[in-house]
Amino acid sequence: MSIKCRxxxxxxxxLVLWISVRGQFNETQTPPFDLPILMQQAGxxxxxxxxxxxxxxxxxxxxxxxxxxxPADRARVKKLVGEDGQxxxxxxxxxxxxxxxxxxxxxxxxxxxxxxxxSELRLRSWGGxxxxxHIANVALSPGRYHLSAENLKDVxxxxxxxxxxxxxxxxxxx
Length: 174
Known about the structure:
Blueprint: H1 3-26, E1 33-36, E2 45-52, E3 56-65, H2 71-81, E4 98-106, E5 109-118, E6 123-126, E7 130-140, E8 143-151, E9 163-168
């Protein structure tokens, strides 16, 4: 076998190994990430597996996006999400009934870590193109997890508003 053939064979073996290892690590996401969810129609479900690298509290929130160059769109979405909760009697916005579950993926199956249903959340934060409602802080240890979310009720008012389930963390805490 010539040197060129040996080098080509080695290159192909390394390439196949690299692709297979890369595929294993890309099959799951690592926070922070946003998962799109359709809130307009009841029964809509999203699921994903994700990987936790660092032992810490992770922040789960519902994010409502708007066009940052359109003040009318921002005002429309702001009316939908309501007030920031400083006034307990303030407007919580349009109810967003959602069921969320997080399970740890183990060799012998899944173990539930977090399971909640909610309808009314208060505005917690905002940015140049989004408003965010806090769901929960969940302590997660390194490993693989499965996330599922299901819309429990039609929310036609959110038609035209991109909504995401966000998993992130505060850089100030561990």
